[in-house]
Amino acid sequence: MSGWDDVVGLTKKLVGAPSVADVGEREACEVARQAMDALGYSDVMVDEVGNVTGRMPGDGNSSGCVVFDGHVDTVTVGERGNWASDPFVATERDGRLYGRGTADMKGAIAAMIVGVSRLRDDPAPCDVIVSVSLAEELVEGYALGKVLDRYSPRAVVIGEATNLHLARAQRGRAEIVIETTGVPAHSSTPHLGRNPIRAMYRIGNLMMSLPMPEDPIVGPAIMEVTDIVSWPFPGLSMIPERCTATFDRRTLPGESEEDVLEEIQSLLDAYTQDDLLEGAKASIALDRFTTYTGFQVKARNFAPAWKMDDDAPIVRAGLDALAQSGLVPMLTHYAFCTNGSESAGRRGIPTIGFGPGAESEAHRIDESVEIGHLIAAANGYEHLARELVRL
Hints:
By secondary structure, the chain is of the alpha+beta class. It contains nine helices and 21 strands.
């Protein structure tokens, strides 16, 4: 058991187990499982998807549980030569820990496992569950949903980076696919065909000109094109048969999948008199992938936005708990999307976010987190666990 309760050491172990989302998280999940076993968690298990969960038993005076969640998958490191040090060997420099996943979000996972383990000899009134979930970088919330199905918690804490403040809201995300169809022809006689790429160019301008709503907490919604693909590719002197483009639409609390699609399809339908845009259609992307356990995932890529009122019981309790841990927390929100889309956005479970590091460190070359943040986060998670179980 020696060393497992060292939050910095555990972060290093997790960083040293690469877990790029489309490659697999098996090794990192095994590190998390071993840590929970060593620190006295009960019912440590790997579910069918590959999530690792452990239960810190309560004293039996209250029913239900609280779930702390962190995703173990990371984005790719890109060209390793651009990093100052090996991204999969966590390196200490100038009071910071560098490596892929230090901020997003293996440092938070280590702090959760260590912090919640301190309830072992002084139990909270109800059970506390630590969830190490998969594939958040591919589709937010899907894997956590499997954990929530099993435990039905009274509250959820998301460990994404907040600079040790308390997040009570986030934008959502809709991955929208636009498809245009063409009529093939030789590129030397384009008048004999219909070019779906030209149609997509027109649609892109229309989409980017849509007025975006704004929320007083999380700010404006966002629309951005992220890829355009034509078929067949390469074109080989021909006008293609179809073209698809993906638009990343960052949504606001209260916006549904139907709201977003209806707005876009109405825009496309308004231009049906333009032969170039005839038949253009919008849909939500469908993600398909296989986890390291062999589980087949099929999920629509829509993650709802959410927010908690500033005076909501979970927000007040969270601020009190973090203050008791020695922090001076401010209320903030996530600019990006998190697994909270499942707990709060879809299921309405009271949810807050708290984690070490800054959002701006996510997905960067030379990603890093302050070592002091890791230690403070472990203390914060312990106090959150003791306070939120009283809700």
